[in-house]
Specification:
Blueprint lengths: L6 E6 L3 H12 L4 E7 L2 H11 L3 E4 L2 E2 L2 E2 L4 H5 L6 E6 L4 H9 L4 E4 L4 H12 L4 E2 L1 H9 L10 H11 L4 H8 L3 H15 L4 H10 L7
Helix pairs in contact: 4-6, 7-9, 7-10, 8-9
């Protein structure tokens, strides 16, 4: 039953089984009420407008699209829902980008259920939550290059510009295919590069094609 202390939540994840599991986990806490779900970036804003949530739990990989692209739009909607990014991407560059775009929290999917609830408590209290292990990595992480790309993004861009497929990049960098796809989507959005030739031009400008 909904009360003044209920957190209305929308789940945005492209895997229906993940959404089902999250719904069950969250609604075991009487403060949580899942009011909507979506698995497509194009439907996130509409779902939020229809359901008026207090919180959006957002994955980065929504199909082949970058869920972080929805953050500025969501923050501008009536009610200004809080946003907790829940993802498998453990690259601190993604956490930096998410928080830089205005997300209020960043948590990995392999976190314990209790940590997810704790993250929601902190975010809904008006603070920012960053999974501790990622916070430690960000503290050690070297400053980003002048082009604003993280080291992992530069590696992916270099290999894309040299004609490697997503699968080849995943193999070479020891990361998942979905991580490569998310990096590729982020690079296209950040660089305004919609064609491979534009990615090649960007890599050349940044001096990445001179690297081995």
């Amino acid at each position: 039953m909904e009360s003044e202390n209920t957190w209305r939540i929308v789940l945005a994840d492209d895997h229906s089984m993940v959404r089902t599991g999250l719904r069950a986990l969250l609604e075991a806490d009487p403060r949580c009420l899942v009011v909507g779900e979506c698995g497509d970036l194009a439907k996130v804003a509409g779902t939020v407008l229809d359901t008026h949530p207090d919180l959006v739990v957002l994955d980065i990989a929504l199909g082949r699209q970058n869920g972080l692209d929805a953050v500025p739009t969501l923050l501008a909607l009536p009610g200004e829902p809080r946003i907790l990014v829940l993802t498998m991407h453990d690259d601190p560059g993604f956490a930096r980008e998410a928080l830089g775009r205005g997300a209020h929290g960043y948590l990995l999917k392999d976190a314990a259920a209790a940590e997810l609830i704790r993250a929601i408590e902190i975010v809904m209290a008006g603070d920012v939550y960053l999974q501790p292990q990622l916070g430690a990595q960000l503290m050690r992480h070297t400053p980003e290059p002048a082009d604003g790309l993280s080291e992992r993004e530069r590696e992916v861009l270099r290999l894309l510009a040299r004609g490697h497929t997503n699968a080849e990049i995943a193999h070479e960098l020891f990361i998942s295919l979905r991580t490569v796809e998310a990096h590729r989507a982020a690079l296209r959005a950040r660089l305004g590069a919609h064609h491979r030739s534009e990615l090649v031009d960007a890599a050349r400008r940044f001096g990445l094609l001179d690297q081995r």
